[in-house]
Structure formats: structure tokens, C-alpha cells
Amino acid sequence: MRIRRLKLSGFKSFVEPAELRIEPGLTGVVGPNGCGKSNLLEAIRWVMGESSPKSMRGGGMEDVIFAGTAGRPPRAFAEVVLHAETAQRDDGTRDDLEVVRRIERGAGSAYRVNGRDVRAKDVALIFADAATGAHSPALVSQGRIAAVIAAKPAERRAMLEEAAGIAGLHVRRKDAEQKLRATENNLARLEDIMAGLD
Ligand code: ATP
């Protein structure tokens, strides 16, 4: 899946409608402290179905709505629109995907996919099928980078293994080692019994 465009309105510091085109290749977001770089990454996670206010640096989900400043009143809603292209099929074609999440004060969140009202679960499934989503290791927030740098080698290795999708192999290896030990015990018992029969 390729994210192509992101539109924000009333989302955190993005009080005025803002649109970003994301071109193929590496995208960097630069700007002074507090200009809203992290808010952009949070907008992507939010439209993908993030349901934890804590991971959006807020106390409640409505904290994503522009809260107002000395000169500007708060907004009544926040909306994020994500345009993406699905992965390429064998015949070279892709589908366009438009996901909209909107939250209104006192009314909660609503989602639309390609113009149709859907549930949060449906949105989560679309991104899970594309091996991405609000908790994808591909979305690396600022604190996460510091955590990787400060991590002990063993912790860093665990993070890398999780990102590489091989964390599950450790569980299987442990299972296999247990089975091997049990089989070795059985063989030893068998040898004892055979020795007794001679
Ligand atoms: P830094 O480089 O310091 O990490 P940043 O560019 O990542 O900063 P963000 O953390 O994305 O900046 O943006 C923080 C700004 O967003 C703050 O000025 C904060 O007041 C503003 N902000 C966050 N939530 C809201 C909200 N609900 N309403 C209005 N402004 C908000």
C-alpha cells in the first residue's frame, strides 16, 4: 500500500484545512519545535484507527480536535482523509483507497471508506491485510527513536526482530527444544528397558 495524500482539518494544531502530497520515495518532515511534525504522524495513525488517547498524547480522544488559542476559538470537529493505493496486482493494476475519520465533540468517531460508512474494525482490517496500520513498526515516533538508541543490545535486537516479523520464531524454537528434550528422555528410557530385556 502507498499513502498518496493526507488531508487534515481541525486536527490538533492543523486548524485550517491542510493537504500534503506524499511522493514515492523517502519523505522527510522538517520544521521548528512545536510546528506539528509529530501531529502529522499521529494523524496517519488516527485515520488508520488508533483507539488509545495515550498514544495520541491526549487524555481523551476528543483531545485531537483543535482546542483553540488566544486568538482562535476551538473547533467542533476534526477530520483526517487518507488517500492510498493498494499493492500492485500481478496484472499491474492498483485500487484507489480513500479513508476518512471524523470526530465531533460529544458524538465520537465515524469512518468512511471510498464513500461508504464503515466500522472501526473494517478500517483496521483493511490496513492489517496490507501489513500496516496504527501499530505498524513502520510508523516510528520521536520517543521511539530515543528508546531504540537508549536500549540495551538485547532489547534493541528484540525490537529489530519484531520489525522483521521473526519474533514468533523464538516461541517456535523454544517449543521445538522442549520436544527434543522430551524425545531424548524417552529414548533414554527405551534404552534402559531394552537393556533390561537382554
Ligand atoms: P518537536 O519538534 O518539539 O517534537 P513537533 O513539530 O513534533 O515538535 P508537535 O508535537 O507535532 O510538534 O506539535 C505540538 C503543537 O501542537 C503544540 O504547539 C501544541 O500546542 C499543538 N497542539 C496539540 N494538540 C492540539 C490541539 N488539540 N489543539 C491545538 N493545538 C494543539
TrEMBL record:
Q: Which residues does ATP bind? A: P32, N33, G34, C35, G36, K37, S38, N39
Q: Where in the cell is it found?
A: Cytoplasm
Superkingdom of this entry's organism?
A: Bacteria
Q: What does the annotation say about its assembly with partners?
A: Homodimer.
Domain text: Contains large globular domains required for ATP hydrolysis at each terminus and a third globular domain forming a flexible hinge near the middle of the molecule. These domains are separated by coiled-coil structures.
What is the stated purpose of this protein?
Required for chromosome condensation and partitioning.
Family from the record: Belongs to the SMC family.
**Name under which the protein is recorded:** Chromosome partition protein Smc
Recorded source organism is Novosphingobium mangrovi
- What portion of the full-length protein is represented by this chain? 1 to 198 of 1145
